[in-house]
Design goal:
The protein is of the alpha+beta class. It is built from 13 helices and 11 strands. The chain has 2 domains: 211 residues, no CATH class; 182 residues, Alpha-Beta Plaits, CATH 3.30.70.1230. Strands 1, 2, 3, 6, 7, 8, 9, 10 and 11 form a 9-stranded mixed sheet that branches. Strands 4-5 form a two-stranded antiparallel sheet.
């Protein structure tokens, strides 16, 4: 980076606080850039005019330089941006007219009052459109006032002042137009480039936000059913629903603790993740809703989504697939894993528990029955309650009914599912 570029960068960033908004930073940068450009251009104007024009007229431009520099120094010390921009705009507006009056009129001053146009243009960039109206009105008033006096006092002014050569006057007309046009162009260019950069940053931030929203959405859908997730996003009310008929299944991995004793924590996690991920795929395949995992136990339900009418059959098919999956694919330390599976059908209450780390869970007698016939089951067997059996027995084969004792329920008849009728089963 060259010294000039480094100086301009330092100038634009002077007075900017990290707490400033992006819009305020841009306004401060523009005003500092405008101040630097006006100083450079007016110094060039001052030098040339001092060489070519009446030397007494250089007093006002020189005073303009001192006032700009002094106001800038005051701002850098106080960091009062509101005061700085108002006083700078005031200098941009009034000093060109004062310079014109000191030289003579519009013609002899070569249109130096054109520099005053920087005030309303700067007000648009540094303050805002609404604030710029007053500055533009002030510029029009000063121009009209100067024109009024020039019209009535032109002859007297020309007679009492030293005439400026026509070549000098023409040269400075050109110089004034070039200087003001250059300043305006550079300010607008810088403003446009910075706004384009801000727009790109905003687009990138929006893109990243969309990615995060999609990620959050995906995470939420992995925790909750889609319908529940949508309700949770749109309402702060408690979510609790009653379902008259739901089929609930618990799957318990038998002797998991003993099998895991010879494994590292990483191996235990990898094994559970592999098994439960496969169960998740089966749940999705059969259109069932995974509820939760508790240690080495897995809970899934059908009937929570009205789109699946044959959810009891789907639960039964899923249970058979789970049992066969472990027989076929998983072997840990030369030991085949087995599962106990219990299925119950009936009414449940479903809802979201908690506000932080919330879960979607089921409650009711149906859930208790499914859980208890799982824990009282035989490894490798799928046990179902009476209601589930009545729904499945025409399409599925079962062993003879068994009577088991359930804590809190007493004796209960359960049925052990073999498989679909006509299908070859791994179970005797």
């Amino acid at each position: 980076m060259s010294n000039d570029e480094s100086f301009m960068t330092s100038l634009r960033s002077a007075g900017i606080s990290p707490d400033d908004s992006e819009e305020l930073q841009l306004k401060k940068s523009l005003l500092m850039l405008a101040t630097g450009l006006v100083c450079v251009m007016s110094m060039l104007w001052l030098f040339i005019y001092w060489q070519l024009g009446p030397q007494f007229s250089t007093t006002v431009p020189f005073a303009f330089q001192l006032l700009l520099a002094g106001n800038l120094a005051l701002y850098l010390k106080t960091r009062n941006f509101d005061l700085f921009r108002q006083t700078q705009l005031g200098l941009f507006l009034f000093m060109p007219f004062v310079a014109q009056w000191s030289i003579g009129n519009f013609i002899t001053a070569s249109g130096v009052s054109l520099w005053g146009l920087l005030a309303p243009i700067g007000a648009i960039l540094f303050c805002g459109v609404r604030e710029s109206i007053a500055w533009f009105a002030a510029y029009i008033f000063m121009t009209a006032l100067s024109g009024f006096f020039d019209f009535y006092l032109a002859d007297a002014v020309v007679a009492s002042t030293k005439s400026v050569p026509i070549r000098t006057s023409v040269f400075f007309f050109v110089l004034n137009f070039i200087a003001v046009s250059s300043i305006v162009y550079l300010l607008l260019r810088f403003s446009t480039l910075e706004k384009d950069k801000a727009a790109l940053r905003l687009d990138e931030a929006h893109r990243l936000l969309q990615i995060e929203q999609e990620r959050s959405e995906k995470l939420l859908l992995n925790i909750l059913p889609s319908a529940i997730a949508e309700r949770l996003k749109n309402s702060s009310q408690t979510i609790a629903d009653g379902f008259a008929d739901v089929t609930v299944m618990f799957v318990d991995i038998v002797n998991f603790t003993r099998v895991a004793e010879g494994l590292t924590p990483q191996q235990v996690f990898a094994m559970l993740n592999r098994i439960f991920s496969s169960f998740d795929e089966l749940a999705e395949k059969n259109g069932m809703e995974k509820i939760k995992t508790i240690g080495d136990a897995y809970m899934v339900a059908g009937g929570l989504n009205s789109a699946f009418a044959d959810y009891t059959d789907a639960i039964a098919d899923m249970a058979l697939d789970m049992r066969d999956l472990l027989h076929r694919d998983f072997n840990v330390n030369q030991m085949h894993l087995e599962v106990r599976i219990g299925i119950g059908t009936g009414p449940v209450v479903a809802g979201v528990v908690g506000k932080k780390k919330f879960i979607y869970d089921l409650w009711g007698d149906t859930v208790n029955i499914a859980s208890r016939i799982t824990s009282e089951g035989v490894p490798g067997m799928i046990q179902v309650d009476e209601i589930t059996y009545r729904r499945l027995h025409e399409r599925y084969d079962f062993h003879e009914p068994q009577t088991i004792y359930l804590k809190g329920k007493g004796n209960m008849v359960v049925y052990r599912l073999i498989g679909r009728k006509g299908a070859i089963s791994n179970q005797a």
